[in-house]
DNA sequence: GACCGACGTGGAATCGATACCACATTAATG
DNA sequence: CATTAATGTGGTATCGATTCCACGTCGGTC
C-alpha cells in the first residue's frame, strides 16, 4: 500500500483546513459554497479515498457487521448471506465474512477476530452450542444474533426444525406409510441432530407407529453418507417404505442408492428431504423437501441486528421462522 | 461498541509502558522475562483484544485481501473462495468479501470500498471487461489479480474457455453428431460469451460442419433460460442431435425441457455443460460437463497475490488453467 | 453603538496502536 | 580500568480521520 492521498493533501490543494474538508465530506457544520466547491474539485482531481480505519478509530463505528459461517460453500449459507447483505446494504452496513470450516473452536476465534476489527455487530450461523461459546458471546458487548440454533441468553433466529420434521412424517403417514426410515446427523448440532429427530419420533408415536431401531441411521451431511445410510436401511429385515433424511444432500445420496438397487421411487420407497436446494428440484424423481426460506431468515436476522444497533436492547429475544412443505415426485 | 480495554490499560495493569506491551505482543525488541509475564497475565485477565484499525493505521498493512465476487451464492464462486481462503489463511491473511450482484458499476465501487479499508491486495472474479474498470484497476497501486477473464495489463488467471469448448464439440463430433446446437450467453462476458462460442464455431468449421443460425441460442445463466433456449432448439426445422450449453445450469434447464417433450437423452439428444457442478452429477441422466478445478484456480490466484505481496512485480502475468472433460450419461 | 445570533473557519486534542530515539544498566572485551 | 556491545525500558511523534472549542465576520435589533 503506497502512500495514499489523505485529507491533509486535499485540504492543502483546496486551500482550506482539514476540518473544512471533513465537513464537506460528511455534510455537517457550516461551509461556504465556495469552499465546498474547491474541496469537491480537489477530491475529484486527486482521487481521494478516505481511510475507513482512521474514521472508525475516531468515531468507534466501523459500519461493518461480521458474519460467521460454518462453511462458505453451501447453498444454505449463500442464501442466508444474500438475505443479510440485502438488508444491511440498504442500511449502509457492509458485511465481513469469516468461516469456521465447521470447527467449534474457530467460532470463538472468529468472534475475537471480528472484535479486533471493530465490527458493530456479529451474526453467527450456529451449528453447535457449548458453554465456552456462550461465555464468549456474553463477554462480547456488541449486538449479537445467532441464526439456526437457539442459544441461551442470546438473541436467536431459529428454524422450526421440530415441527417441520413432524409435518413431514405426518405427511408421509397420511399417504399410508407406516414404516418410515430416518437419516439424521450427530446431536452436537442441536437443531438438525436433536430437534429434527424428536419431530420424527414424536410424530410416529402420536400415530401409534413403532420405530425399529434399524430405521434410524446417521450421516454427516454429505451425499455419500446419505447413500450409505440408505444401504443400511434397505438391508433391514423389515425394510421401510419411506425415507426421511434431514438434509437434501443426504436424501439425494439415498436416491442414488435406491436407483442402483432398482427400488422404484416413489412406488416402493418415498423419500423426503429438508432444505429446498436447487438440487432437490432437478434430480429425478424431483425430491420432496421443506423450504426454510433462507433468504428471509437472513433478512430477519439482519433486522434484529439493526434494531440493536439503533439502541433497542432485545436481550434473549427468540424468533421462530416458518417453513413450507414442497411435495414433489419422490413421494 | 463500548469502550474496550486498550494497550494503555494493559500497560498500567502490568506496570510497564505501552511500548513494552507492544513488544511482548509482537515479539520484537528486548523484553525481560519478568515484564513479559506481567504483560501476558494482564492481557489474559483483561481480555485484551488489540485494535486492528490502530495497527493498520500505523503499519499501513491490514493483513486483509479483498475478494470481489459477481454473486455470493454460486457454486463456482464458493469453490473459488474456498481455494483462496485456504491459501491465504496459511499465510496469515484474511479475506474480505464483497459482491457486485453482477452489476459492472459495482465492481468499480467495490474496488474503492476495499481501498478505503486498506486491503493489501484485491482479487476480482471478473465477469466483464470495460475500459473504466481497467482504468480503475490501473490507478490501484496495490497487488491485484483478476480471475476468469483476461484483463489487459492486469495479472490474470484464466480458464481455458476456448479449448474446453472446442474439446467438448470435438468429443460430440467423434460420437457421430453433426448437428450441434449451442446455448451461450451475452458477449459482455468475454470468457463465457465470446471464447466459448468461438471454440464451438471453430471446432465445427474444422470438421467441415455447417452451423445453422437457429442452432445458436442465448440464455442468461439461469435454468429457465436454458429451458427456453432448448425449446427454441427443438423447434428448429433441422433439429440438432446434441446441445452444448456453456453452463451446467442452462444445460440442466435444457434437460428439463427435453424430458417434458419426451426427447430421450442421450439417444435422441446429447447434452453437454460446463462447470462440474454438484447438480451435474445428480441429475438424471447425469450431465456430461467440464471440470474447471475452481478450488485450484482460487489457490493459484491467491498465490499470485502472495507473490506480489512479497515484492515480486509480475505485471501483466497471465496464467491459463487446465480443465478436464467429464463424460457422463447425457452423451 | 453595544449586543446577539447565524455563519464560516481553523487549531488542537483525540482515537489505539507502532517505531524511532534516547537513556539506563549490565556484561564482555581489549 | 576504560570502552564497547548487548539488553531493557519509556517518552514522544506518527498514522488519518473527526470533533470540540475558540475566534472571527457579518447583518439585524433594541
Description:
Two copies of one chain form a homodimer. The first copy, chain A, has 331 residues and is an alpha/beta fold. Chain A has three domains: 7-50, lambda repressor-like DNA-binding domains (434 Repressor (Amino-terminal Domain)), CATH 1.10.260; 60-159 and 295-322, Rossmann fold, CATH 3.40.50.2300; 161-291, Response regulator (Rossmann fold). Helices cover 47% and strands 15% of the residues of chain A. In chain A, the strands form three sheets. Chain A has a six-stranded parallel beta sheet with strand order 2-1-3-4-5-11, with helices on both faces. Chain A has a four-stranded parallel beta sheet with strand order 7-6-8-9, sandwiched between helices. Chain A starts with 6 loop residues before the first helix and ends in a 5-residue tail after the last strand. Chains A and B meet through α4, α5, β2, α6 and α11 of A and α4, α5, β2, α6 and α11 of B. Chain A binds a DNA duplex (30 and 30 nucleotides) through α2 and α4.
Amino acid at each position: 500500500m503506497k502512500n495514499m492521498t489523505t485529507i491533509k493533501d486535499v485540504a492543502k490543494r483546496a486551500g482550506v483546513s482539514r476540518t473544512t474538508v471533513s465537513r464537506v465530506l460528511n455534510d455537517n457544520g457550516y461551509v461556504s459554497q465556495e469552499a465546498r466547491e474547491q474541496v469537491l474539485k480537489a477530491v475529484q482531481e486527486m482521487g481521494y479515498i478516505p481511510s475507513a480505519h482512521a474514521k472508525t478509530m475516531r468515531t468507534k463505528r466501523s459500519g461493518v457487521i461480521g458474519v460467521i459461517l460454518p462453511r462458505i460453500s453451501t447453498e444454505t449459507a449463500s442464501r442466508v448471506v444474500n438475505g443479510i447483505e440485502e438488508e444491511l446494504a440498504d442500511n449502509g452496513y457492509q458485511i465481513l465474512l469469516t468461516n469456521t470450516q465447521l470447527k467449534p473452536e474457530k467460532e470463538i476465534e472468529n468472534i475475537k477476530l471480528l472484535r479486533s476489527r471493530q465490527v458493530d455487530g456479529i451474526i453467527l450461523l450456529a451449528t453447535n452450542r457449548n458453554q465456552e461459546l456462550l461465555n464468549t458471546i456474553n463477554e462480547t458487548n456488541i449486538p449479537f444474533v445467532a441464526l439456526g440454533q437457539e442459544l441461551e441468553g442470546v438473541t436467536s433466529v431459529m428454524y422450526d426444525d421440530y415441527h417441520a420434521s413432524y409435518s413431514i412424517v405426518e405427511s408421509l403417514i397420511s399417504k399410508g406409510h407406516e414404516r418410515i426410515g430416518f437419516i439424521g446427523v450427530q446431536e452436537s448440532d442441536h437443531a438438525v441432530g436433536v430437534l429434527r429427530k424428536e419431530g420424527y419420533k414424536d410424530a410416529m408415536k402420536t400415530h401409534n407407529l413403532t420405530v425399529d431401531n434399524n430405521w434410524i441411521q446417521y450421516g454427516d451431511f454429505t451425499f455419500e453418507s446419505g447413500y450409505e445410510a440408505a444401504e443400511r436401511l434397505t438391508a433391514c429385515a423389515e425394510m421401510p417404505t419411506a425415507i426421511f433424511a434431514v438434509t437434501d444432500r443426504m436424501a439425494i445420496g439415498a436416491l442414488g442408492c435406491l436407483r442402483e438397487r432398482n427400488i422404484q421411487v416413489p412406488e416402493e420407497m418415498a423419500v423426503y428431504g429438508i432444505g429446498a436446494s436447487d438440487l432437490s428440484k432437478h434430480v429425478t424423481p424431483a425430491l420432496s423437501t421443506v423450504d426454510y426460506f433462507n433468504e428471509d431468515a437472513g433478512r430477519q436476522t439482519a433486522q434484529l441486528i439493526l434494531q440493536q444497533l439503533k439502541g433497542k436492547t432485545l436481550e434473549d429475544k427468540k424468533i421462530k421462522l416458518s417453513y413450507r412443505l414442497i411435495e414433489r415426485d419422490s413421494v
